[in-house]
Amino acid sequence: MELELELGLAPPNHAGSCGKRGTKEAFGIDKAGLPLILRDDDGDHGSNCSDARDWEMSNKKKRLVGWPPVKSAHRPRSNGGHVKVKMEGVPIGRKVDLSRHASYHQLHHTLRLMFPSSTSHHGDPYAVTYEEGDGDWMLVGDVPWEDTVMSAKRLKILLV
Amino acid sequence: RKQKDNDTASLSTPSSPDALPAAAASPRAPPARASRRVASPGPATARAAPMGRGGARDGAAAAPPWHSLPDEVLEHAFSFLPAAADRGAAAAVCHGWLGAERRSRRRLAVANCYAAAPRDAVDRFPSVRAAEVKGKPHFADFGLVPPAWGAEAAPWVAAAADGWPLLEELSFKRMVVTDECLEMIASSFRNFQVLRLVSCEGFSTAGLAAITEGCRNLRELDLQENYIEDCSSHWLSYFPESFTSLETLNFSCLEGEVNFAVLERLVSRCRNLKTLKLNNAIPLDKVASLLRKAPQLVELGTGKFSAEYHSDLFAKLEAAFAGCKSLRRLSGAWDAVPDYLPAFYCVCEGLTSLNLSYATVRGPELIKFISRCKNLQQLWVMDLIEDHGLAVVAGSCSKLQELRVFPSDPFGAGQVLLTERGLVDVSASCPMLESVLYFCGQMTNEALITIAKNRPNFTCFRLCILEPRTPDYVTRESLDAGFSAIVESCKGLRRLSVSGLLTDLVFKSIGANGNCLEMLSIAFAGNSDLGLHYILSGCKTLKKLEIRDCPFGNKPLLANAAKLETMRSLWMSSCSLTLGACRQLAEKMPRLTVEIMNDPGRTCPVESLPDDSPVETLYVYRTIAGPRSDTPDYVQIV
């Protein structure tokens, strides 16, 4: 096979041809009907990020999944990462270690495994909320993932 | 040559001369004279008299030619080859040697649990006493592998229980180990002695209780950075009162409480205890009383270390440490009040290893403490030590071999005063420095070139500049020149992680000069397919390649498909790969498993997707076991 390659200089803010980043996981509407909406700091961009690249270009400060490459044990964390999770209509709660998840999407995946759709809500849409330091309940997904890890004291899954 | 990759290397100790494990010096070492005779043609020794497959001979006859020596002789000769690579080479000589080697192999390291089937491994090496198995790819440490990916330890435990009843040591890294696994281990191996679990998950304190209750000859229970579910089981209490064989106890990653009275009694009666690493639940004053019970400790992990200053506690600690004349390795989660550090001064001079990477202590007390550790070989710290602290380290710790500096504020605004300066100073003044992991905010080519000139003896160089694609902050150029200098100068470099702004040119240099390179980590670097091509067509000894967020596409992958079978594994995430190329690769290379991973939740079968579908994550590894059957829905084997 012939290999046609060219040597080119990287443009200064070269981010385009990297394809998808891990942050794409945190965008869009998941098939299971769980909205995990991540807005950027400006709040100007819409939630439907079909054009992930534009978003990437304008939010270089956005936290990347798994970067910098430090193990979760080495990251500063407030409460050891474990938080209780309760789902509306399900009597028994669970515990999840937020610090072992790198993104909202991974958290969602774990929650789906912990609360399979057969038990209570039969695939109805639901929202994940978390209680933060001053006792307020917030919708998961508004702020960068790392901020949620640091500030969430417990989670509650509500049927929408 | 440091024995890092062989199957006798311990995961927790640094690769330093005095950490060479006892197994390397074979317990069956004969007098030197006899070994010389075995190796060369000459009169047969009395040991050759018992007949092996070499044919019936009596001791008085002429020595058999080397290629038909009896098995016992071969096995004895092979016992001097602890390194797996050497044993593998011996096994490749001929069928006779293959048989003798595999039947006598005592230690087995499986670096990728999917590279071979457990039953096959057990059948092939029936005499194994110590086995180590690793599972998930390295990037799983940073959250890039979603839950339920695989790497279950259960099939390995089951196969071992069947085929290795005399197994003594088991080590798992990045695998899912369940309580059932631990119960099976406890009940299957009557002489089980060493359990080491590193970065594993899936088990609870109930499983630990099975181990402590069932393993009567346990010497080491080493739990490093695992996720352990706390069932409030009093696992420590299950050690019988008659149990005294413990030499290593590491439960630093355990979140919950342990019964301190039980721990104290255990420590008191285990007179051979050398390594004790406590968790956060043990307060300072209890540490002091444990030390009084175990002054023979060589390694101590202090657990949580934050406390208000009390002079009587200080005195207790100082007295306790003064009794520990053998203490060489110290670690702990020191949210330490700096005022307590002088309590340790008496052990400083003996310390060879200091791990403060969980410690947020900073300031002059920290630096004064480290400066007293004149014999330090391994230092892990947070960047709170700052440049001036590293300058002191450079001046004080002339025997330093390994330095790791972790970021205290990985996402912050960079208020820490740690720059390239610290690394330059240490590399200039520590002639034995060979392994570096360094997180910082800025770098220059000049610094890297200086470091390369100072330390051509690097074997491991991992630099992580926190912000991706950061250029040389003085010249604004890429860091190609700096990293090229590293690979050109450090001819023995085995592990390299690059960062900052890098073009394809640096990979040309790495490909051409990385002749010992075994592991390479690349992130946010390069500008075209050429970069990956340089690596895959060079780097003759490359085993593991992990790449994220680089503009590398299909062409270099396909052009260098054969190379992948010479490597253990390749990880590429957020690059420019498409499904068609993965399909071609899988078709061309039947002894590779080509796994693609897309977002969890997207479960449409890969067969239905077109060739130009983007591939988010590719994980390719060589295997003799065929495709695995335990993939989760978000992993597809092409």
TrEMBL record, chain A:
Keyword Repressor recorded: yes
GO terms, biological process: auxin-activated signaling pathway; regulation of DNA-templated transcription
PROSITE patterns on file: PB1 (PS51745)
The organism's place on the tree of life at top rank: Eukaryota
Pfam families named in the record: AUX_IAA
InterPro entries xref list: AUX/IAA_dom, AUX_IAA, PB1-like
Main subcellular location of this protein, as a coarse class: nucleus
Subunit structure as annotated in this protein's UniProt entry: Homodimers and heterodimers.
Family: Belongs to the Aux/IAA family.
Function: Aux/IAA proteins are short-lived transcriptional factors that function as repressors of early auxin response genes at low auxin concentrations.
Protein name per UniProt: Auxin-responsive protein
Organism: Aegilops tauschii subsp. strangulata
Automatic annotation (TrEMBL), chain B:
Residue intervals of the Transport inhibitor response domain: 126-172
Record Gene3D superfamilies: 1.20.1280.50, Ribonuclease Inhibitor (3.80.10.10)
GO CC entries: nucleus; SCF ubiquitin ligase complex
Keyword Cell membrane: no
Origin superkingdom: Eukaryota
UniProtKB keywords: Auxin signaling pathway, Nucleus, Ubl conjugation pathway
Keyword Nucleus carried by entry: yes
InterPro entries assigned to the protein according to its UniProt record, in alphabetical order: COI1_F-box, F-box-like_dom_sf, LRR_dom_sf, Transp_inhibit
Every COI1 F-box domain range: 68-106
Organism the protein comes from: Aegilops tauschii subsp. strangulata
The protein's assembly and partners: Part of a SCF (SKP1-cullin-F-box) protein ligase complex. May interact with auxin and auxin-responsive proteins.
Protein name: F-box domain-containing protein
Low complexity: bias regions: 9-51
GO biological process: auxin-activated signaling pathway; SCF-dependent proteasomal ubiquitin-dependent protein catabolic process
Region (Disordered) residue spans: 1-67
Family annotation (SUPFAM superfamilies): F-box domain (SSF81383), RNI-like (SSF52047)
Pathway: Protein modification; protein ubiquitination
Compartment(s) of residence: Nucleus
